[in-house]
Design brief:
Elements: E1 3-4, H1 10-24, H2 36-93, H3 120-144, H4 156-208, H5 214-222, E2 228-229
Antiparallel strand pairs: 1-2
């Protein structure tokens, strides 16, 4: 025998509330198969639930979009960091830059290995090391009275611009994540009341249909959004027979 299946997701909870509202709004209190008290609870609770779930959905969409943009900008920043150090190391190989200057970027002086950039923190750290290291190179050249040969393709300003763009978008995505978490908390706070109302209304509907045959009870209860599932090996409820077609009108007699 098909078994009743209560909502187990926010989408199915919304559907259950909407079905109760849509069916009940076209009836008087005496016609509804659930109580007036349940109807009076449904009206404000459904409005609160839809507001909360819509706000959570909107916050999640905004967070996902910003997170995607931030990740793209983070990947671009990683490319700038990698290219900067690759070009610098090529300059060291050509004796344009001194290997000792690697220390100003917090790199190993005797190694041309690129630093691992595997996380958000790595991106911030190594981009800032480039900015600070290039400034330190310029100060050292001025102190020594030598000609400063700035890095190029990319230069430190390009790295700084990529870093600023990434930080701005990453920060906005983080704020949206906080907004989504708060919206989800509001939804979670409403779930117990929503679940209790749906259970109560569905119990009342089935109680008021208790004198019907089980297939007819389920068929009428489904009109209010009550969900039944057929388990493996069970026979599903039969579909109601269609109403017979009306006989065509006879043609008018000839005069």
């Amino acid at each position: 025998m098909p078994a009743r299946f209560l909502p187990n997701s926010d989408v199915s909870r919304t559907s259950a509330l909407d079905e109760l509202y849509n069916k009940g709004s076209g009836m008087s209190a005496a016609q509804r198969l659930f109580s007036q008290e349940e109807w009076d609870t449904l009206l404000p609770l459904r409005a609160q639930w839809k507001t909360a779930t819509n706000r959570a959905a909107s916050a999640l969409a905004s967070q996902a979009k910003l997170t995607g943009t931030a990740e793209e900008e983070g990947t671009t920043l990683e490319m700038f960091i990698s290219h900067f150090f690759q070009v610098f190391n090529l300059g060291v190989k050509r004796h344009k830059y001194s290997a000792s200057e690697r220390a100003l970027f917090k790199l190993d002086v005797i190694s041309a290995d690129l630093p691992p950039v595997l996380s958000h923190a790595d991106r911030l750290t190594w981009a800032q090391n480039i900015i600070d290291g290039e400034a330190a190179r310029q100060t050292a050249a001025q102190t020594a009275g030598t000609v400063f040969q700035p890095m190029a393709n990319p230069d430190a300003a390009e790295v700084a611009a990529a870093l600023a763009a990434y930080e701005a978008t990453h920060g906005a995505a983080s704020r949206k994540k906080n907004e989504y978490n708060l919206a989800q908390q509001a939804v979670e706070a409403l779930r117990p009341a929503v679940d209790a109302l749906i259970l109560s209304a569905w119990d009342t509907i089935e109680f008021n249909l208790r004198h019907e045959t089980r297939p007819r009870l389920r068929r009428r209860a489904r009109e209010y959004g009550v969900v039944y599932i057929t388990r493996p090996g069970e026979t599903p409820d039969p579909e109601p027979a269609p109403a017979p077609a009306a006989a065509p009108e006879p043609p008018p007699p000839k005069t």
